[in-house]
## 1
Amino acid sequence: MHAPENLLADCGSCFGLCCVALPFARSSDFAVDKAAGEPCRNLLEDSRCGIHSTLRKKGFPGCTVYDCFGAGQKVSRSMFEGRDWRQQPSNSSEMFAVFPIMRDVHELLWYLADARDRTSTAPLHNRIDREYDELDALTSATPEIVMSVDVSALRARVNDVLLDASDLVRADVAGKKKNYRGRDMIGAKLAGADLRGASLRGTYLIGADLRGADLRLADVIGADLRGADLRGADLRGSIFATQFQINAARGDRATQLPESLTRPSHWA
């Protein structure tokens, strides 16, 4: 997949929306509690993070994992035309309400772009294009329209074509494919496992040992890879993989990723 530029986060073009609009609770991911709409204590006046280079060391690994799929700059620069919530507080409530919805829409666009980029999904390209175009138009709508979106219904509708796309892509792997969809596989021992073409949709793989596993053409949409050990694993061609998932996992230089994703700086 060649990642569309508009779906890649550009923090320098955003007003730090993920650091303000979203809540977080004191945990292994965040050192403090923060309410939605409350600026993070580490956010500087120029929208940069004051501890960006030491986030993990200072107890904020959750910040290094998060990915907005480009929703931040879309809301900041396009929808609100560069009007900072600090300078025009009257914009803030709308901006903070729109941002998480826009993030969900951009995530769905990411999945559709992945599906469209594959030759095996050719029979679905017209359906995929229609869904993509409709969602893309929504990202240019007014804040009122975006805030009225039923995200759950939208996800359910788009999921229909994503499931069909997954079936076509995974059919390229010969033989019977493993199906772990939605299963609790927390801490599972899967080192060296042949998971080519497997369904790992919504699978809980927190802390799983996937060292050297073959995940080529596996469907990983919604798979929870927090702390999963991907050292030496092969994820080339895996379906619907996101930077968010990769950031949350552990890997090394031997981990092979889809071309649309980048190796996290905190990996060995």
## 2
Amino acid sequence: MKLFLAPMATLTHTALRQIIYSFGGCDEYYTEMIQAGTLLNNGPFEKYYLITDPEPEKLVWQLTGGKPEALIQATELLCRTGGIGVDINMGCCAPDIIRSGAGIAWMLKPLEETQEMLKGVAYEIKKVEKNHRFSVKIRLGDDDFTEKKFFSFIDMLAFVGVNQITLHPRTKKEKYRLAPRYEYVKKLVEYVKKNNYPINIILNGGISSKDSLDKALEVSSNVSGIMIGRGAVQKPWIFSQLKNLAPEKIDLLQTGLDFIHALEKYQPPEFYKTRLQRFFTYYSDNVQFSHFLRTKLLASPSPEGCKEVLTKYFDQCPEERMLFLK
């Protein structure tokens, strides 16, 4: 069973991938969402989204956008850049994404409209590189979803040639308030198998430890892989830990400093603030006084400021610096 890094805006950029790689990596890294229209307009920061380090042969491009033509053209550009495939985001529930017609809005539009967009994407993928994979990331749908509507959507995905589906089993408004409905991942696996669809099913949502993984798999067995998002930001070593390959102890100070160094190497200064704040929002949960450390780090969103805060914290709490995993 494969382990995937989930696509997360301002989080799954090259710096985070580099830190995960330093602990042994994962089977596939999904990029943060790339806005198709902005990419095609060749904005000043788009080149940073196209960095393929540290393992180009494991990179999946994730595209978002509300305009079919932009998604289709951006697919061609990304396929020519490398990686192993393109993933269309049809699950993001951020209000600004939905208003733009992107994310989960594609699950709420007329089926024929979404189908035409995906057919165009599939054509570009096969035209450029036949071995590239075509995948989508979805949710269950709107809060009034029915199994009939959901599985009609799956039939459409199979028809246009989607090779892999990542299901985050929550509805549009549930977000993270309620537990994931893992039983629908199981139903999806069974549905795909019953219809002989050549589609891999990936489970996403709520996985942050070996215990949570085991509980999810009790309900939704036979998936092809597990996708981890926020848990991998808090614990970049989680993939090696789930494979029983993690080191016995983690130097939390050094890992934090390594992330900052990678951020300075791979991202422009204009991105430092948001990327530091997003990463340390989750990473701070590794220590006992997480609220205190998080508050200090978010108030000092510069590389030098975060280095100073981290060093001072572990000087004051040296017993917390080493996290023992075994």
## 3
Amino acid sequence: MLDAMREPTADQREPTAGQAELRGDCERCFGLCCVALPFARSADFAIDKDAGKPCPNLRDDHRCGIHARLRQSGFTGCTVYDCFGAGQKVSQVTFGGQDWRTGPPERTRRVFDVFPVVRQLHELLWYLTEALALPAARPVHADLRRALTDTERLTEGSPEELAALDVAAHRQRVNVLLLRTSELVRAGTRGKKKNRRNADLMGARLRGADLGGADLRGAYLIAADLTGADLRGADLIGADLRDADLTDADLTGAFFLTQPQLTAARGSAGTRLPGSVSHPVHWTAGT
């Protein structure tokens, strides 16, 4: 089992002020995720929908008509999604509060083109903000701050600048710093550091497994049994936790874990989490 970490664990940190702003606020958004993004009929969505086409459940006031019963109606994917605050940024800042319903077609198309770009940038802001809150990453804090400033500046670009942005190249530059952050943080845990990066662990039987300090970046943990597993100090950036069983698992000190990842999983009141995320309602509601 993982010994105590040398630095304060993530469960001792509340979400930073910066992270609090990097969460979707539907009150300030024009329902962009319900229009701009496509989805296919599957276990996550009850229907097919093309990009740029409003979901039939979207009301005229930009609210979801079935929000209280999304899971029961076959729209689990909607309950998992989070724009990291990109929706309100594009709605209120990039396009100055102009509703996509009332503008000319070319502006509406640009809104839908820009939204996924800003969403990716805001996700990077979430990771960079978390990295700066990790004492073990202090050797790269200066570089992280510069990357945070650069990313924030990009989010404030004009619609034309955002549409032309090579967001993949920017993600790659930021990822170099996040990798270094991961190395520094996981070095603060004792014992052998397991490398499970991009590993295919779909349906794996990992009940009670010692994954403390593991590199689980991009790992496929779909429907994996992680009941009672030790994930303290693990790097979970990009890990696919859809339908993974985290019942009574210990994720304190785990980092780069987002609320959408967690909401896609299953768990219990006994699942221990970092302070930057919360127990999904459906874990205890039985839905």
## 4
Amino acid sequence: MKRLIFGCLFTLLTLSAVSAFCQKSGSEEFKRAFLERINRSRATGCTCGTTYMPPVAPLTWNNTLQKAAEGHAWDMSNNNYFSHTSKDGRTMEDRIVFAGYKFNGFKSFAVGENIAFGQMNIDEVMAGWLKSPGHCKNLMNAMFKEIGVAEDHSYWVQDFGYREAFTSQEQQLIKSGRMHVVQVPATSK
């Protein structure tokens, strides 16, 4: 009887631990857990490689960035590749804008992306990104204000964004023709 009770208790604890780490991508629990983990790092600051990154403001969840991340995670998973460039040649910015995260009508616009493969849960993938200087710098970038994250069969994608709206005064100047907006093409790395 003791063995049966121990076995049931062990199974229950094991299932509880597994469910704590295997939230469904896109669920409210997944979003909350990811934001909590990311914003904890952003609140305390960290060292990315040899560069100390001071504390920065928390990120907020953006469903459009999540949609872009889901699309890329699904595409990598279903087409068996691992890259920031889709097999059809689309870049991170192409995918994010196509998902609906537009830059038209905004004064400033920036996007970024982290990808990973093989990690089993949020803690594992975040630990890996924080150990990688480039990924860590994306996570700690003060310019980024929004994020969307997805996972598909151990393919992880984090899409970051920032858009700054024109002030009401700038909007009036644009409408009156006294201020003109010129779109500058993005520079390639």
